[in-house]
Write a sequence for this structure.
């Protein structure tokens, strides 16, 4: 049976009729699945993206008009002063703790990626990263949420976003591990949408298999739509769940960064004290061309300009004091007001697409598998930081890289962001907490702390005061 005429006509009008060239060889179920994928695509939008007809920001022009962001600098945090935000760290911590005590804070954990660059063909959250324990990224993050709930005597719901390629494996893994101690109603798993990849030379849709398009997650900007559109077995969306639980603010992070202080009271407190709708963490760039997005103010609005879109002559500007004028590197850690996200639901399709050139394996017209050696395709993603210009009173808070940013991205052998690199940060963080609390850690000992033993430096100080641990060999501290 040939492909439905209405589908063929629609595809032909956009030069995409090749997508059903293997239709007759597919099973009825595969035909139905392929038709559903094709019908879900806005072909006009896709064509405009490929041709460059969509209204995209001129990032270079915006960068040349930019100013540094309104920020709480690290030096002011460490000195205990109010800095650019007019609120001290002590005041911020008090406000943040009160919000946590009241159950008004949730965690938004983005976990849609696979570990392909790591040679790990499973959800990246399942990667074993614990230097002594082999604890997975999922375990570390979820145990932090459990420990945070215990500290504040109230549930801290985790909203975990998957993608179609990681969703089922993630659910199976977390169920098999009893959600690492999270109560059932404290974990809401939802799935983001996808976008097709197109051939870079022709704009044609690429097939992953004869009956399946090559689809990839639509970027963390897809979070906004997914918060409302995805429903669980009870017919409840993530936004519905937040309303029911009284969650007013979300601590946002990506799954590949295990050293993040989830639910950090000080960060939440700055957000609350300034009545910010969107608070972002920055680390200071070490070099002008560091591969981090740049927080900048343009026409009074905070935004992020990707390093690839930031002109070198702008990045090179100094601040007159020996530092970089545009110092604030984005690490994808934020605090969102839930009311702000609800307001943004009406704009979920308004975020601009970012276009990336990638190597995409695919099926050619002869039905043969092609493994490209060079970039052959365009992928389209939306980024959540593009919400920044829409937010009222957005702020930036600087943290030291070693206390908040060690993302797992690359296979062993790369210069940074490898498993070994991340484990060095983890053990360095945990060693520092123990030594600050007065514990002796021999230099040849690797130590790892489960969040269930102590969540942070404050928790470690309490445990060490009660009973200093014996650290004579590689040790995993866990209750």
């Amino acid at each position: 049976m040939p492909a439905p005429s209405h589908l063929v006509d629609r595809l032909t009008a956009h030069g995409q009729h090749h997508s059903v060239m293997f239709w007759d060889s597919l099973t009825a179920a595969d035909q139905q699945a392929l038709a559903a994928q094709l019908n879900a695509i806005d072909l006009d939008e896709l064509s405009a993206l490929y041709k460059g007809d969509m209204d995209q920001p001129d990032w270079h022009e915006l960068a040349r008009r930019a100013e540094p962001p309104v920020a709480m600098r690290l030096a002011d945090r460490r000195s205990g002063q109010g800095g650019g935000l007019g609120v001290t760290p002590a005041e911020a911590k008090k406000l943040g703790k009160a919000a946590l005590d009241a159950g008004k804070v949730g965690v938004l954990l983005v976990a849609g990626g696979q570990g392909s660059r790591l040679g790990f063909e499973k959800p990246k959250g399942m990667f074993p990263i614990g230097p002594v324990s082999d604890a997975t990224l999922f375990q570390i993050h979820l145990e932090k949420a459990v420990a945070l709930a215990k500290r504040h005597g109230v549930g801290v719901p985790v909203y975990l976003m998957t993608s179609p390629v990681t969703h089922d494996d993630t659910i199976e893994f977390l169920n098999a591990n009893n959600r690492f101690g999270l109560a059932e109603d404290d974990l809401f798993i939802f799935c983001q949408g996808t976008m097709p990849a197109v051939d870079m030379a022709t704009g044609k849709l690429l097939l992953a298999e004869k009956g399946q398009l090559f689809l990839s997650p639509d970027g963390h900007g897809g979070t906004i739509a997914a918060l409302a559109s995805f429903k669980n077995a009870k017919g409840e969306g993530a936004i519905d769940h937040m309303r029911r639980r009284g969650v007013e603010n979300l601590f946002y992070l990506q799954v590949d960064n295990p050293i993040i202080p989830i639910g950090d009271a000080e960060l939440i407190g700055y957000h609350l004290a300034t009545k910010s709708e969107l608070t972002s963490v920055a680390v200071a760039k070490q070099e002008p061309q560091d591969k981090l997005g740049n927080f900048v103010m343009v026409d009074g609005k905070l935004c992020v300009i990707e390093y690839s879109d930031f002109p070198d002559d702008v990045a090179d500007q100094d601040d007159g004091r020996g530092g970089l004028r545009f110092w604030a590197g984005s690490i994808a850690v934020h605090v969102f007001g839930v009311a702000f996200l609800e307001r943004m639901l009406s704009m979920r399709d308004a975020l601009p697409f970012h276009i990336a050139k990638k190597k995409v394996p695919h099926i050619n017209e002869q039905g043969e598998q092609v493994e490209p050696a060079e970039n052959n395709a365009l992928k389209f993603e939306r980024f959540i930081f593009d919400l920044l210009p829409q937010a009222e009173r957005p702020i930036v808070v600087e943290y030291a890289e070693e206390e908040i940013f060690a993302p797992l991205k690359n296979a062993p052998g790369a210069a940074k962001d490898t498993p070994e690199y991340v484990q060095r940060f983890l053990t360095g963080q945990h060693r520092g907490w123990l030594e600050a609390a007065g514990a002796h850690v021999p230099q040849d000992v690797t130590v790892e702390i489960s969040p269930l033993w102590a969540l942070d430096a404050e928790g470690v100080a309490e445990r060490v005061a009660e009973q200093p641990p014996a650290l004579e060999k590689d040790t995993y501290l866990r209750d």
